[in-house]
Amino acid sequence: MKKALVAALFAFIATPAEADEVVCLAKNIYYEARNQDLSGMYAVAEVTLNRVDDKRWPNKVCDVVKQRKLVRKQWICQFSWFCDGLSDKPKDKYYWNVSYTVAAVTLQQRGLSNVSSDTYWYHSDKVSPYWADAYTATAVIGNHIFYSDR
User: Fold this and answer.
1) Which of 5-14, 51-60, 116-125 has the weakest average pLDDT?
2) Domain that holds residue 73
């Protein structure tokens, strides 16, 4: 209840720039973790914000979420949903509302997840990305494996 109240209050007092950051973070949660429980959703949100706080990534949520580079005439994105060519408009209202609430709460109250502040990467346990061996696995939450560069 407290988290929902914080999200509702945030929606009323947020500036347009803050509201954009909530939407960007909510979309990342929605597309990366809507099939996870709340701890998995918060973990994805925290990884996104950990990147915002680290000098290796842009310092705004939307810039981190939308970060991409052109490789051999193809866009490669930090988060695959952003470059998949599909609509970025959430279709499932229930999961969109949950994702939006998690985003708003996470932006207001950091540290609600089970990942440390130096956790910057994750992937589904259904894939084996080439980069995983370069990092240290720090947590498994739902079907995501989280990594730091310790």
Assistant:
1) 5-14
2) 2-115
Please check whether residue 104 is in contact with residue 2, taking contact to mean a CB–CB distance below 8 angstroms: no
pLDDT value of residue 1:
55
pTM, whole model, 2 decimals? 0.82
Question: How many domains is the chain built from?
Answer: 1
On whether residue 120 sits in a domain, the answer given is no
- Across the chain, mean pLDDT equals 85
